């Protein structure tokens, strides 16, 4: 088989050269379109289901949320196993699928099963799926450099302006906010006053929930003009909350300000984000979508940041604290330089040892063609160009050259043997002629 292949190649040299040029061109295109990252994604093919039920102990979370969800999610097709973790007020479930399963097919199956769980969870508890990212999807972290602006205002800018803008970048799965205070209205009830007026905490909650709503009316026409009637009831200030009536006793309304104090405060925090020991900071994490080109997405996010920064408050700017793009550039540059150095060194050694420039060129030409062809395979298998894959190519250069040297030396040996046979044959002919 090998002999026939070699014979065919020798008889059709132009065709072999044409195929080699085609593979090289295809390989160059694959190099330019290859996904670039610093580290390979070795995370499992998983879907995360997150459920929040604040104020409950881990045991209650385990019994009423985690256990019902795990038992219902175990029957999904192509699932390897289901893991779960219960903590104070939160439940995390990790559904691990087989490696060959498409991640979005898996997410649709999980979403389908979650919609059928029904009344097995407590009232008001809604499980949600995590972002379609991976364990190595945190490609960029940023904070805000905003002297003179308090943490609550910075977090508001992050949650209501920056986050929505950066989430529109193609390839971004999620912008996770961290640090600062999330503003909220806080009602501090006096239990003694509550007892005096013979009210309960649910009565206060019901009053706030009922009044913080907008009710629809109807449309009627008068004098050929249509009027739409509605009530605007969303609370917009502390004073509006204070003047809400909880109950009427003896024709006198008992308002929230008679029972409690209302103030603007921040949501309770379980931790803080400190930047370089200089104090708390507010920022966000850019999470890469599954299967996207990390280097390309980081470039798009930085471009979007320049656009978003024009709308930030005066004196406020982005401060990038972690950028995988720099690691990617350094890694790819290091591997690229290594490949070039290896090609030069190997070429010199081949020329010195063979001492025949035509044979040396035939071997050296194999290096760029083989490297370019390897990227075709990487793209076909959806493997990114990272430290591991490029290092494997660098290590394989020696094997590529070895094969060429062996074939060249083998050819020389057979030619030498054939030449010796021809020389003896000529000597014999000369003797016969004499």
What's the structural blueprint in terms of helices and strands?
Layout lengths: L1 H10 L1 H21 L12 E7 L5 H16 L5 E9 L2 E8 L5 H13 L12 E2 L8 E8 L5 H16 L5 E7 L4 E7 L1 H6 L4 H11 L3 E8 L2 E7 L6 H5 L2 E5 L2 E4 H4 E7 L16 E6 L5 H15 L8 E7 H31 L2 H8 L1 H15 L6 H47 L1
Antiparallel strand pairs: 1-3, 1-4, 2-3, 5-13, 5-14, 6-13, 7-12, 8-9, 10-11
Helix pairs in contact: 2-13, 11-12, 11-14, 12-14, 13-14
What does this structure look like?
- The structure is a single chain.
- With about 425 residues, the protein is an alpha+beta fold.
- Helix content is about 50%, strand content about 20%.
- It is built from 14 helices and 14 strands.
- A 4-stranded antiparallel β-sheet has the order 2-3-1-4. The protein has a 4-stranded antiparallel β-sheet with strand order 6-13-5-14.
- A hairpin with a 2-residue loop joins strand 10 and strand 11 (about 250-255).
- Helix 2 (about 15-35) crosses helix 13 (about 365-380) and helix 13 packs across helix 14 (about 385-434).
- The longest helix has about 45 residues, at about 385-434.
- The two termini are about 45 Å apart.
- The mean pLDDT is about 85.
């Amino acid at each position: 088989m090998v002999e026939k292949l070699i014979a065919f190649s020798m008889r059709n040299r132009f065709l072999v050269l044409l195929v080699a040029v085609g593979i090289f061109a295809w390989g160059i295109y694959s190099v330019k379109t290859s996904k670039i990252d610093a580290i390979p994604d070795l995370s499992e093919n998983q879907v995360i289901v997150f459920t929040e039920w604040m104020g409950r102990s881990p045991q209650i979370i385990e019994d009423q949320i985690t256990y019902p969800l795990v038992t219902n999610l175990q029957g999904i097709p192509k699932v390897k196993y289901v893991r779960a973790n219960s903590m104070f007020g939160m439940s995390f479930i990790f559904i691990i699928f087989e490696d060959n399963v498409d991640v979005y097919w898996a997410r649709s199956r999980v979403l389908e099963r979650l919609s059928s769980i029904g009344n097995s969870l407590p009232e008001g508890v809604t499980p949600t799926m995590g972002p379609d990212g991976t364990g190595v999807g945190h490609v960029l972290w940023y904070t805000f450099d905003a002297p003179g602006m308090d943490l609550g205002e910075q977090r508001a800018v992050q949650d209501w302006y920056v986050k929505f803008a950066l989430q529109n970048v193609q390839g971004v799965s999620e912008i996770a906010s961290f640090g600062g205070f999330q503003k909220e209205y806080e009602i501090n009830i006096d239990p003694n006053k509550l007892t005096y007026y013979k009210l309960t905490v649910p009565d206060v909650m019901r009053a706030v929930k009922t009044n913080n709503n907008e009710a629809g009316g109807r449309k009627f026409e008068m004098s050929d003009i249509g009027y739409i009637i509605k009530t605007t009831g969303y609370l917009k200030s502390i004073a509006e909350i204070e003047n809400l009536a909880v109950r009427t006793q003896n024709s006198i309304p008992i308002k929230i300000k008679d029972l409690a104090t209302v103030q603007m405060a921040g949501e309770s925090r379980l931790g803080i984000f400190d930047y370089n020991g200089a104090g708390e900071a507010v920022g966000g994490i850019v999470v890469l979508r599954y299967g996207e080109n990390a280097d390309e997405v980081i470039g798009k996010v930085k471009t979007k940041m320049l656009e978003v920064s024009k709308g930030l408050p005066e004196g406020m700017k982005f401060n990038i604290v972690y950028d995988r793009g720099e690691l990617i550039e350094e890694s790819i540059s290091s591997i690229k330089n290594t490949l070039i150095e290896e090609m030069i060194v190997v070429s010199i050694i081949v020329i010195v040892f063979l001492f025949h420039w035509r044979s040396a060129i035939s071997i050296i030409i194999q290096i760029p063609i083989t490297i370019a062809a390897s990227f075709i395979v990487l793209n076909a298998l959806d493997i990114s160009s990272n430290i591991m894959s490029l290092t494997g190519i660098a290590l394989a250069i020696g094997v590529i050259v070895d094969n060429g040297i062996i074939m060249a030396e083998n050819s020389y040996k057979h030619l030498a043997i054939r030449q010796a046979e021809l020389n003896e044959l000529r000597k014999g002919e000369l003797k016969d002629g004499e």
